[in-house]
Amino acid sequence: MLIRTEAPADILPIDRLLKAAFETEAEANLVMKLRENGRCTLSLVACSDEGEVIGHLFFSPVTVDGQDDNWQGLAPLAVKPEFQRQGIGLALMEEAKETLAEFGYPVTVVLGHSDYYPKVGFVKASDHGLSCSWPVPDEAFMVLELIPGTLAGRNGLVEYSAEFSDV
């Protein structure tokens, strides 16, 4: 398996992957809108040995109390159904954590499954005084500090890009 940055030729395979991995086309449409509006910070793909796109994750900017501190929101993370439960999503996350930190992005948030994301270090955002701008279960909104010390004393309302309002 190879993990790399998304290339233009990956856009349609990513779109097909997202439509296969989720119940609706909302995530696929979201990624297209974010990409079209220049809201992509990092988009990684996992490819099989044959070069097929089998996994994808996407990060876009978020703000805290209206302030842009280079924090990122993870949405979505997807693996082709027939390749799930093989560690591909976790491998994508490990690569993303390293890449984001390397480029100075200090924190990422996710709205996701509370059994999955703690495996890569996410913790409840509310434990750090952070809340989501949408009404979501407390355990589903999580944060991950990529650059140590960034979360100290930082709290507030996390808001995603306007493109998320259609999801």
Overview of this protein structure:
- The chain has 167 residues and is an alpha+beta fold.
- Helix content is 22%, strand content 30%.
- It has helices at 11-21, 26-36, 88-102, and strands at 2-5, 42-47, 53-64, 72-79, 107-111, 123-124, 130-132, 141-145, 156-160.
- Strands 1, 2, 3, 4, 5, 6, 7, 8 and 9 form a nine-stranded mixed β-sheet that branches.
- β2 (42-47) and β3 (53-64) form a beta hairpin.
- α1 packs antiparallel against α2 (26-36).
- The radius of gyration is 15 Å and the shape is globular.
- The chain starts with a strand and ends in a 7-residue tail after the last strand.
Short description:
This protein has three helices and nine strands; from the N terminus they run βααβββαβββββ. The longest helix is centred in the middle third of the chain and has 15 residues. With 167 residues, it is α+β, with helices and mostly antiparallel strands.
Write the topology of this structure.
Layout: E1 2-5, H1 11-21, H2 26-36, E2 42-47, E3 53-64, E4 72-79, H3 88-102, E5 107-111, E6 123-124, E7 130-132, E8 141-145, E9 156-160
Parallel strand pairs: 4-5, 7-9
Antiparallel strand pairs: 1-2, 2-3, 3-4, 3-9, 5-8, 6-8
Helix pairs in contact: 1-2
Properties at a glance:
167 residues, globular, nine-stranded mixed β-sheet, single chain
- Sheet-strand content, in percent, reads 25-35%
- What best-fitting shape do the alpha-carbon axes yield? globular
| Poorly predicted ranges | none
Compute the number of strand runs: 9
How would you sum up the major sheet? 9 strands, mixed
Mean pLDDT: 95
> In whole angstroms, how far apart are the ends?
31 Å
Helix content: 10-25%
Helix count?
A: 3
Rg, rounded, reads 15 Å
One letter per element, helices H and strands E, the order comes to EHHEEEHEEEEE
Class based on secondary structure composition and strand pairing: alpha+beta
